[in-house]
Structures are given as C-alpha cells and as structure tokens.
Amino acid sequence: MKTILVLAPTPVLPDAIRPLLSPEEYRLLHRTDLADVEPLAKGSFLDACIVDAEEGDVRVLWMIDKFHQLAPQTPIIVFKGATWDWEEEAYLKGVSAVLSKPIRGRLLLSMLERFSKPAAFTRQIARVEPRPAVRVPPAVIARPTYELASSSQQALQVLRRFSEVLTHSLNAEAMLRQFLLFLREILGINRSVIFIRYAAGTFGLANPDSRQLRPASAIGLVPVALNTVELSLESGIGGFLCSTGRLLRRDSEEANDPEIQEEFQLLGAQLAVPILDRQTLLGVAVFDERLTGEPLLNHELELIFHLLEELGLALKNIWLHDQVVANHQMMSDVLRELASACVVISRDLKILHANKSARALFGRLGNRGADPEFSDLPAALGSKVYQVLNTGTGIAPFKYVVAEDPHSIYNVSVVPFQQQGGGVPNSVLLVVEDRSKEEQLRRLEVETANLRLVKTMADRLAHEIGNALVPLSTYQQLLADKYKDPDFRAGLESAMADSVKRISRLTSQMRFLARDTLVAREPLPLAQLLEDAFQEAQKYQPLKSANLKMDKRDQPIILAGDRAALKHAMAEVMLNALQANPSNAKVEVRTHLDSGERGSHWVHIDIVDNGPGFSAEALKKVPEPFFTTRNVGLGLGLAVTRKIVETHHGKLEVIDGRKDHPSTVRISLPLDATAA
Description:
Elements: E1 2-7, H1 12-17, E2 26-31, H2 38-42, E3 48-53, H3 59-70, E4 76-80, H4 87-92, E5 97-100, H5 105-115, H6 119-123, H7 151-165, H8 172-187, E6 192-197, E7 212-219, H9 223-226, E8 231-232, H10 236-244, E9 248-249, H11 258-267, E10 271-276, E11 281-287, H12 298-337, E12 341-346, E13 351-354, H13 356-362, H14 379-391, E14 398-401, E15 409-417, E16 427-434, H15 436-482, H16 486-514, E17 522-525, H17 526-540, E18 547-550, E19 558-561, H18 563-580, E20 586-595, E21 601-608, H19 616-621, H20 637-647, E22 651-654, E23 664-670
Parallel strand pairs: 1-2, 1-3, 3-4, 4-5, 18-20
Antiparallel strand pairs: 6-7, 6-11, 7-8, 9-10, 10-11, 12-13, 12-16, 14-15, 15-16, 17-19, 20-21, 21-23, 22-23
C-alpha cells in the first residue's frame, strides 16, 4: 500500500481526492502544518506529496522548499487555483508536476503511478554488512621521523605550528597569548610583551588611528607592573619603530635615547619588533633574551618579523570583524526597539531577524512572541517580498488592510539589500508600520471637520433663508388689510421675486457643491458663455450702469464642458465684480491661450472689476467656504466656482490682492482637442 500525503489548509482537497483512490492500494493522510509532517518525511514513509496552492499564496513555495529538504526523494504534485502564478518557481524548487483545479481522476492516478516509488523499495531498509577489519603487521606501517636537518624543513615546521595560533583568529587576546607561547616553545624566549594601539575607537574597539599603545598580552611579567606601562608612537620605543619600521636592539646606538632605555629597563627586555599590516604600524612586540641568556640570532629575528606581519594582518581582520559584529549588534538593538515590525528575509525565504513587534505581529497563533517563519507572513506581504527578491527592484510603500480586521491598517515597505555590484539582492527588509491609530484619528478629524462644516452651513443657511423670508412674512401679516392696495401688491410681487431668486441661488450653490462629476459635456463658445453668465449675474445685482467689456478674437474659443455648471461659475465671479463697485460697475474679461506640458492647451480667463480690491489678509481666505466681506450672503460664491472649475480639471486663482487696486480672478480651463 502506498501512502499519499496531502498538505492543505482545509479538508476540501483531500475529501475530493479520497474517492478517486482505491483504499486497498492507497492510504491518504491530510496535514495542515508542516511541523506535523517532519517525522513522516524523515522516516521515508511517504510515496508522494500533494500540495494545495491557494489563490495567489506565495507561502506554498516556502512549504514546498521545506518539504523538499526533509524528503528530497519524495515526488511533489501541486494543485493550483486559477490565479496562482508561481508555477515556474515551483518546478525550480523540485516539484514533479503542477496540475490545475478541478481534479481529474485519471490524470492524478497516472501521475501517482509514474512518480511514486515501489512499495517494496520504500519499505526496505538497506543493511550494510560491516567489513572485517584487516590487520596490518607493525613492520608494514611506516613510522616517519622528522629530522630538522635543513633550514627549509625548520621553516615548514614553524609554519605548521604557527597555523595553530590562527585558530584563535576571532579572539585577539587569545591569539596573541598563543603566539607568545609558541615563540617561547620554539625559541625559548624568557620574557615577551605585545602592545597594540589603544582601544579608544567606536564601540570601544581598537582604534588604528590612536597614537597610544596598550599592553595586550605578556609572558614573564607581573600583571600589576604591566598595567602601569604604555608606549607612544610619538616618542620612545614606539616612536622609533613607527618612524623606521624595523627592529630595535637595546644595546644598539639607535637606542641611546633616555626614554627608550627607560622603557627597555621597565619591561626587562632587550629587543623591540614592529607589528605591521604591510601598510601601517598596529603594535609593538618586546622580547628578552633566551631562557639560557643567549641572544636571538638574525635569521630567527627575521622569522619573528615575518610572523608578526602575518599576525598583524590577522589582528586587523579581528578589528574589522569586531566592528562588523558591533555594527550588527547596534542595528539589531535599533530594530528591536522600533515600534514598527521589521523582518529581514534571505533569498531562501528564511527569517534572519525579526524584532519584538514583528514577533508579536507574525508569530504563530498560540505562540505569540516566538520567531516567525516565512509561512507566517500574510499572502499579500509574502508575494511582495518574493517579487523583490526575484527582481532586485524595490517597490513603493503601500497600504495593507487585514481582511479579518478592516480597522487594522498598516503601511508596508520592502527594501532590497544589494551588494555594490548590483544584481539580485541577498536579502530584503520588510517594514510594517501600524497606522491604525493614525487612521482612526484622521477619520475622527474628518468627521469633526464635517460636523463643524454642517453646523456652519446650517447657521448660514438658516440666516440667509431667514433674510429671504423676512419681507414675505411682513407682507403676509399685512395681506388681509392691504391686499386691494395696488402699491402693496406691487411690493409683494417684488419681495416674492427677490426671495425666490435668493433661495434659488442657494439651491444651485448646494447642488454644484455636491457634484463630483460632469452631468453633461458639450462644445461651448466661450464668448457666448461669458455673455450669458453676465446676464445671470445681473439678475442678482441689477445695475443700469453695469458694463461688460470683452476682448475680441478673430477665431472663437471653444470649450468642452457642462454648460449650466460653467455658466454658474462665471456668473458667481461676475456677481462679485458687480458688487465690488455698485455705483459704477465695470467688468472686463481678458482671454489668452497657453500651451502646457505634454502638448496640452489652456485658456486663461481673467475677470477684472473696478472695485477697491482685496487686502492681503482677505486674499488668503477668498476661496474658502463661508468667507465674505459683505453683511449678506453665504460666502460660497468663489468656493462653488472653484469646485466647478476643478471638476472640469481647471484651476481658480486670485492674482491681484493689492488694496485700492482692481482685483483679478483667473479661471484656467483645458481646451478640447478641436479648440482654436
């Protein structure tokens, strides 16, 4: 009997497969978590694995990769949904076949017969019989003896022993001490000290730019006495070696300096050797004579010099390694304390780092705070991470809303970590910032602003409608007594007409403020539109002296838009112009054409009055709703005009705000492709 494993989050797929397989030939196991599969996969109990690939879920690739590592010989068959687009990647991760849903029984049975292993083979445990031991006579075994007869053999022996020192290549103190013990063993040196540059750099690490040398390791000296001695690169032994880069003997003429002699005496040493990294001086090694009192020979000193040079390179690598470790620790500390969830993911979809917020957000259910795995990431985030890892191109930050909790809103960034040479990144940084509280505050602010707007609008509307109803109410009270009076009836008719116009204008303003799209779109001659708007404005401000002046053009300008909306927008601006100087109102309209970016064409309509103009303070508030310099009206005229103009993809601006000068309101509108 063959055992088939089905990895699926729900029992839908295994329930659909089970009737297609013979129970005498196949045993079907359903698992939802990869952790429950590990004993089966490692024990070679499975003949095939069927994976359910949900719609657009990239976490299936991670599951396939993990299963393939556990059971590389077990064939994998994937059943994918209509929008699962990772088929090529699945084959690259070792999948044997990718089939589309719904399940076709004959095709599935054919695949299982083709890919699954014979039952006898899968159940057989190979036994390897131990071979009998072969005894070799002692005389046959060669017993080499190492006789250091030549200097080359001695050098090879020294290099072999020196390699033992480099086993401590990540611990400077242990490496230096092992080196001094190594020199004592092969050369019999009585006393030795190594000084390195002072640890005053970033994070307390050795600083190559320091001018002080501190004792790092010693043999044959009392630690208390050693801690009181420091060398300097400015003078003494350190200064000489820094300037010359060669050995210094205590009994040489170059060591006649009193400070040098005093330092040799304090250390009980006879020789100082520089520690170089082939570029700069990293430290100084100070040695005494042999235990027998004999001095070191020149070829031995030459060997020590070269070994110290290699030691200097290893020492510099240790400093660089410590710097990297310190930087890594610092970045880990920073990421750990960030309120945003930060996850570093490698190319093989392993979580390299996850801070506390990420563990709380993505940790496995029931084990919050544990290190998450790639499969714990939501499908929407996992697919973005996989995309960046494959393309090496970062994506713009985007908003992520949890499907189960629409009030949980996050701002997500996926940043690739690439080497200087470019190419695909080695890893990516996933940053998930919780914006739920900010969104709630923003919604509260919008709701509060809307409530304030509704309150203001209700107050202004009540006031304006009340003003329109006052004369009607007065006439209504006198109607019974004075109805037969012709003058009374004429006044009533005039009051009713005026009130109807005011309320009708309010209704139009509210209607255009509520629209976000165009109701109709038709070609409109600009000159005729302006004349109609001027006549509409005169209905609300009937002045006999009112005069409209427009520049004449050889070829008419044709707009495309909503006739009623644009007429109302122009009428509002012209009404303000008429009200600016009621005694001698003059309105001038100037038009000029302009070409914008990408070949677009615009018409700029400047409406100029002959009033005193706006003050600088009033200019800033002119387009705002409910701002007015008059005692009557809502102050919605220019606000309605701006809304209509912006609905037509145009722009409204007040150009001239100097006091005692005429004001200019400019309306800029895009021209239709057929405009002249």
